[in-house]
Amino acid sequence: MKKILILNGPNLNLLGTREPEVYGNLSIADWLKLASERFSDVELIHHQSNVEGELINILHQYGFEVDGIVFNPGAYTHTSIALADAIKAIPAPVVEVHISNVHQREEFRRHSFISPVAKGVIGGLGLRGYDLAVEYLKDL
Ligand code: DQA
Predict the structure, then answer these.
(1) What is the pTM of this model?
(2) DSSP assignment of 86-102, as one string?
(3) What is the predicted pLDDT for the residue at 84?
(4) Is 62 among the residues known to form the active site?
C-alpha cells in the first residue's frame, strides 16, 4: 500500500475556524475522515506543526520512507530557506498545496521558497487541492 504524508504548517491546526471566508469550514480532521474513505488504497499519515524546526524533523523522518508528501507550509512558504533545503535533502516527491489562491492575495504571498524544489504546486482549490495532490502522488 502506498504511504503518503500530509504535512500542514503553521496555523493550519485552526482550519475550519480560521478565516473561514478564505480557508473554508472543513477541519483537517473532517478532511482526513473523508480522504481515508476516498483513498482506502493509500495509507495517509498526517502531521501538523506550528514550529519550523519540527516541520524539518518530520520531513527528515518521513522523507525516506513515504511515497510522497502533500505539504502546505503555510506562511513558511514565503520565508523558509530551511524548509526548501529539507525538501532538497529527501527523496520523497513533495507537492506544495495552498488552500487559497496566494496570487490573488497580498504581494508577499506571491513568492514561494518551496515551489522551486517541489514536484508541483496546487493553489486556490480549497481542500480539494489536497485530494488532487494525493491522487497524483499515489499513481506516481
Ligand atoms: C496558505 C497560504 C499562506 O500564504 C498562508 O500564510 C497560510 C495558508 C494556504 O493554504 O492558502 O497559512 O498556505
Answers:
(1) 0.97
(2) HHHHSSS-EEEEESS-G
(3) 99
(4) no
